[in-house]
Amino acid sequence: MSFTLHGAGVGGGIAIGRVHLISSARLEVAHYAVAPEHIELEVMRFSTAVDNVRAELQGLRRNVPEGAPAELGAFLSLHLMILDDATLSQAPRDLIRSLRCNAEWALVQQMDYLVAQFDKIEDPYLRERKADVVQVVERALKAMQEQPGRGSATPAHEASLIVVAHDLSPADMILFKQHQYAGFVTDLGGVTSHTAIVARSLNIPAIVGAHSARQMVNEGELVIIDGVHGVLIVDPDERVLKEYVERQRQIELGRQKLKRIRATPTTTRDGAAVDLHANIELPQDVEKVRESGASGVGLFRSEFLFLNRKELPGEDEQFEAYRHVAQAMHGMPVTIRTLDLGADKAVNSSARSGPNPAMGLRAIRLCLAEPQMFQTQLRAILRASHYGKIRLLLPMLAHAHEIDQALAMIGRAKQSLDEQKVPYDQGIEVGGMIEVPAAALSLGVFVRKLDFLSIGTNDLIQYTLAIDRTDDSVSHLYNPLHPAVLHLIAHTIKTGSRGNVPVAVCGEMAGDVTLTRLLLGFGLRQFSMHPANLLAVKQQVLKSDLGELDKLSSRILHADDPEKAKRLLEKLNA
Ligand code: PEP
Ligand code: MG
Questions:
Q1: Catalytic choice (79, 194, 482, 530)
Q2: What letter does residue 310 receive in the DSSP assignment?
Q3: Please, where are the H alpha helices in 189-237?
Q4: Is 194 a residue of the active site?
Q5: Helix, strand, coil proportions of the chain in percent (round to 5)?
Q6: Is residue 243 classed as helix, strand or coil in its secondary structure?
Q7: Which of 18, 225, 409, 512 is most exposed by smallest CB count within 10 Å?
């Protein structure tokens, strides 16, 4: 039976494919067919992994250190019991044989089944034991990865699959860069959550905040994602399917057409030059930046290098990553934001730090609290600055003393490189993100102490309107057209321009074509966004005449009601 589910569209576009239900443990698990002659080997691979995990858990239980909490032994016994339950230890062998599939996939199928059983239990304590099931499975998956002989995996028909999950962390999402799925749907998440941001950077249609999608769709079911309107159509009939295939074709045609303006200089009709930069998460994203024709990297979210791993990357590893981007951009500016870890991007993703992580020890606060980690990154960035035009960007500043401390740390990193005679760009520019209202309202000190500013509208909106950007239950209140938000943005652009300090916008607002003219009207000349949005924004710039934007932009800024601002915006864009 056909039905629709609604959420928030991410990445635009339309995807048509078969549902692939996942839990985060499955992210690293490919699904592939095993040749009949290798089936028994695959079963053996599974059995060895289970044996290894059993031995590991028994060893841990034997060696519980003195003084360890009494529950530790019981906890390990519970994990051993879960491991030896036939659902996890026997059923996957049957699945491998009957479905001729790989061991990891078979195990995760069984995990999903068990987790669903736990979900039905009324007792909250017992229900939560599903986390132990997931942990045991993760241990077994890891044991399989460590076995030699792995690597024959060829993901099956990924391009026709639509991943549906209850929740995906930004760390989960970044792993999808290695895959080629057709689209994503998650039950949780707001449009500017980092999960959504990474989904957008994958340039495939997605829906976040689809509430109970994970429960309501079945593996293998045909679905359509309308990423423009945030609609998931389950089991569409022939007529609807045909219509969406046609819409998909039109969107693709439009994308192809846009490529024609890739090399066109970005100027308004009346000749004002505008810089369009790109946002990246990982060094390999730089290829997409080059393809988009961006004139620089306006935001390298360096913290993504730190996710999905046990050890923090060392100075040399970071240096190589930053140098790669700097060199690939051939002298165009590369703005590396120093670590914005914390909140939804915790290094240890299971430990969201503090009672209110978005307001806790995040970004610059964390870096100043962990000077060793910060120094390592600063040295790596400075070393890479010798190989291109790198700029340093400090996130989440609110206090003058944070700027002073960060600048002192940069000075220290420079000094240590000088002492070692390691070359770096002595004139490297240091900028600050304006993403806390306190910063936008005390710009004097920012303008005096920093070389450039970049408005992080995602957080600026979150903190101005007191809306957790990851929480879909309040995402309807997340409104870039709220007068308070517009005032802070316009004020920052104006103050920067008066003080001769360049101002960019690098939050999601910069890549929203419906806001391009408004931001131009506010005086913005530097935008940084996902490479996938760049040409559409460029087209909007090419069609605009600054002289025609002033009056309406000012009326929108002074509209005291977002609905009125929306109506005026439509007029501005007409
Ligand atoms: C922002 O807050 O707008 C921003 C660009 O930073 P991030 O989305 O990574 O928090
Ligand atoms: Mg931010």
A1: 194
A2: S
A3: 194-201, 213-216
A4: yes
A5: 55, 15, 30
A6: helix
A7: 18
